[in-house]
Write a structure and sequence with these properties.
Layout: E1 2-13, E2 16-27, E3 40-43, E4 45-46, E5 60-61, E6 65-67, H1 88-107, E7 111-112, E8 118-120, H2 131-134, E9 137-140, E10 146-149, H3 154-164, E11 172-181, E12 193-202, H4 208-223, E13 231-237, H5 238-247, H6 255-263, H7 270-279, H8 284-294, H9 299-306, H10 311-326, E14 332-334, E15 348-354, E16 363-367, H11 371-374, E17 382-388, H12 391-398, E18 411-415, H13 421-433, E19 438-440, H14 447-456, E20 461-465, H15 467-471, E21 474-479, E22 485-489
Parallel strand pairs: 1-3, 7-11, 13-14, 18-19, 18-20
Antiparallel strand pairs: 1-2, 3-6, 4-5, 8-10, 9-10, 11-12, 12-17, 13-15, 15-16, 16-17, 20-21, 21-22
Helix pairs in contact: 1-4, 4-10
Bound molecules: histidyl-adenosine monophosphate.
Residues 152, 154, 182, 184, 190-191, 194, 196, 198, 200, 342, 361-365, 384-388, 390-391 line the site of histidyl-adenosine monophosphate.
């Protein structure tokens, strides 16, 4: 779609004004979501050389913008499908959630990082046929570069680690809370725009890293009132599949693709899965056995199938023993069907789920020791998780655990006389300088209104600026919880 602005510019040449119609045509793809006044009339006066009028020779006087025929189109007041506004009540909940994400990360000694929401498209293109690739918001910018809104944070993190190179000392423990975009089918807890909390460890090859990451998520759940009877973690390792595929002679470069197909088991009919696996060159026999192994839910049974010597069993055993030591063994269970839908995982993978089985995955992560080399860097062992902001809110609603979060302002400062607005401003500044939050009443309002407002913003005190007290350098303070009222000098107001 293309849009156009017609500008009527009036220039003053010698002594007469001459109107000129300018048409600005701009490309707009995808179609713009805002309306433009169909006619923008703009008056410009250019002072002609030597002409009167007082302006400097040759200068352009800033044109006053006048709109005529204000035939604006009405806009849709809803945000685009799958995106959200955050009015104050929702923003309070978001801040509450993000503060917990951030506090838990800091409790574990992680440092906050961030990346641009807009990245080069190439960063997200991988060969394994992942769903995330088809969900990409991508476009060409004005410089003909292919760019995309990030669907996840991990590729950006990998890019930054490569860019930092040897200047950072390993291991890195980083966290981020960032907006992600996926053109998803909208279901409960899945949006097109969402936020993810990520914690990642770069440079630790041992399972101690995965164990700590799960511990941090458990810590988060406990803080917000979610217990092990509400949620759990299904844990497996990509090495289980790797060992099986090696046994059946499936080439290593097929591994990512096979994982992506298997991850769809609960989403598409099993015959489709078998057909897709067949395309990768796996024999029918091997497919049957593979699918059988995926239904295994105990480590002992897995050991019977794989034997006890492989890395998969060793890693998983170590993780379960560390879970005991961290104190969250009740939260985790082995489930061979967990493979995760992203091609880059190489070892332990895990997903948080609600035990009632009503919601999509709450969070998920795993080890991705070879992601960096896919971007041309040297591989460094890495693992991490992503935790969305949508499913957890659904879960909190289900459990009736959503916090009551009203607005919180400590003081309402109000002038009792409109001549005292300046004095009230001085009082507000004095309190704010002492770190107190103040809602200053900016208009003349009856006391009844002020009390109502105080209740609405959950104020602790009302500070009233009256003529007699102010002449004495004092104000009246009313403590709203007790009704206690007293006069205090401004310099003593704490
Ligand atoms: P993921 O499983 O694709 O993994 O997403 C992680 C979490 O983000 C999901 O479990 C869910 O909570 C949330 N999420 C994903 N898509 C949506 C959506 N459309 N709407 C709402 N929430 C969503 C990753 O993204 C990996 N990069 C995680 C990771 C970090 N692995 C290692 N480090």
């Amino acid at each position: 779609m293309r849009g156009a602005i017609h500008m009527l510019v009036t220039t003053r040449l010698s002594s007469s004004f001459r109107p000129i119609l300018l048409d600005f045509v701009f490309p707009c793809s995808p179609p713009c979501n805002f309306s433009i006044p169909r006619r923008l009339i703009c008056a410009a006066a250019t002072k002609a050389n030597g002409g009167g009028g007082g302006g400097r020779s040759g200068s352009i006087v800033a044109p006053p913008l006048l709109t005529q025929d204000e035939d604006f189109q009405k806009i849709d007041v809803n945000p685009p499908k799958g995106t959200r506004d955050f009015p104050p009540e929702d923003m309070r909940l978001r801040n509450w959630l993000f503060n917990h994400f951030k506090e838990v990360s800091r409790l574990f000694g992680y440092e906050e990082v961030d990346f641009p929401v807009l990245e080069t498209e190439a960063l997200f293109i991988r060969k394994a046929g992942e769903e995330i690739r088809d969900q990409l918001y991508c476009f060409e910018d004005r410089g003909n570069r292919r760019v995309a809104l990030r669907p996840e944070l991990t590729p950006s993190l990998a890019r930054l680690v490569i860019q930092k190179g040897k200047s950072v000392s390993l291991p890195l423990k980083w966290f981020a809370v960032g907006q992600c975009w996926r053109y998803e089918r909208m279901t409960r807890g899945r949006r097109r725009e969402h936020y993810q909390w990520n914690m990642d460890i770069i440079g630790v090859p041992q399972v101690t890293a995965e164990a700590e990451l799960i511990s941090s998520i458990v810590t988060f759940f406990k803080r917000i009132g979610i217990t092990q009877s509400d949620v759990g973690f299904k844990v497996s390792s990509r090495k289980v599949l790797q060992e099986l595929l090696t046994k059946y002679g499936v080439p290593e470069d097929m591994f990512g693709r096979v994982c992506i197909i298997i991850d769809k088991i609960e989403k598409i009919p099993i015959d489709e899965i078998k057909k897709e696996l067949g395309f990768t060159g796996i024999s029918e026999d091997a497919i049957e056995q593979l699918l059988q192994v995926l239904s295994v839910k105990s480590l002992d049974d897995l050991e019977d199938i794989l034997g006890g010597a492989g890395e998969a069993i060793a890693d998983l055993k170590q993780l379960f023993s560390l879970a005991e030591m961290f104190g969250y063994s009740e939260w985790i269970q082995f489930d061979a069907s967990v493979v995760r839908g992203l091609a880059y995982y190489t070892g332990i993978v895990f997903e948080g789920f609600d035990r009632k089985g009503k919601l999509r995955a709450i969070c998920g992560g795993g080890r991705y020791d070879r992601l960096l080399s896919t971007y041309g860097g040297d591989d460094i062992p890495a693992c991490g998780f992503g935790f969305g902001d949508a499913v957890i809110v659904e879960l909190l609603k289900e459990k009736d655990l959503l916090p009551e979060l009203g607005q919180q302002v400590e003081n309402i400062v109000c002038a009792l006389d409109k001549d005292l607005q300046g004095a009230a401003a001085t009082v507000a500044t004095a309190l704010r300088d002492k770190g107190q939050t103040v809602d200053l009443v900016l208009e003349s309002k009856p006391l009844k209104w002020v009390f109502k407002r105080a209740a609405r913003v959950n104020a602790r005190r009302l500070v009233l600026v009256g003529k007699t007290e102010w002449e004495d350098g004092s104000v009246s303070v009313k403590v709203l919880s007790s009704g206690e009222q007293f006069q205090v000098k401004l310099s003593d107001l704490e």
